[in-house]
């Protein structure tokens, strides 16, 4: 296995719904492990929560996520974003349409001063996404 770097998102009880949403938007194979799947030691209310989830897409994206462990506070912030970029405009516009649906668009997906098509949105789970479509010469 090669070394990889990928986003790992934290949620407060809706990691399963978020990962299923991302699978619908990006495609791929989703694996979900709940706290309860690893024995009877799951704290009350955590048996069905996600201890570790991973989405691997046909385009080579890997996105991991989990519900915060028992006893930890969920404090979502805006100090990160997930960036999708490339030159396949049709594929990237499709991701944009699905990820921005039900969310908030901060920068519409349109041509920018640097020449590429770029947009930024926050999805319905509070995760910020940036999409950059490189203009082919």
TrEMBL record:
It comes from the Bacteria. InterPro entries: Glyas_Bleomycin-R_OHBP_Dase (IPR029068), Glyas_Fos-R_dOase_dom (IPR004360), PhnB-like (IPR028973). CDD domains: PhnB_like. Signal peptide: none annotated. Gene3D superfamilies: 2,3-Dihydroxybiphenyl 1,2-Dioxygenase, domain 1 (3.10.180.10). Residues 4-131 form the Glyoxalase/fosfomycin resistance/dioxygenase domain. This is VOC family protein. It comes from Streptomyces flavochromogenes.
């Amino acid at each position: 296995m090669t070394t990889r770097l990928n986003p790992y998102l934290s949620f407060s009880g809706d990691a399963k719904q978020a990962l299923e949403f991302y699978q619908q938007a990006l495609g791929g194979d989703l694996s979900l492990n709940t706290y309860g799947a690893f024995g009877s030691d799951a704290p009350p209310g955590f048996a069905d929560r996600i201890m570790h989830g991973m989405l691997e897409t046909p385009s080579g994206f890997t996105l991991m996520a989990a519900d915060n462990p028992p006893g930890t506070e969920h404090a979502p912030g805006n100090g990160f974003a997930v960036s999708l970029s490339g030159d396949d405009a049709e594929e990237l516009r499709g991701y944009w349409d699905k990820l921005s649906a039900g969310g908030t668009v901060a920068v519409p997906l349109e041509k920018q001063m640097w020449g590429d098509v770029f947009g930024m949105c926050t999805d319905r789970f509070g995760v910020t996404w940036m999409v950059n479509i490189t203009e082919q010469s």
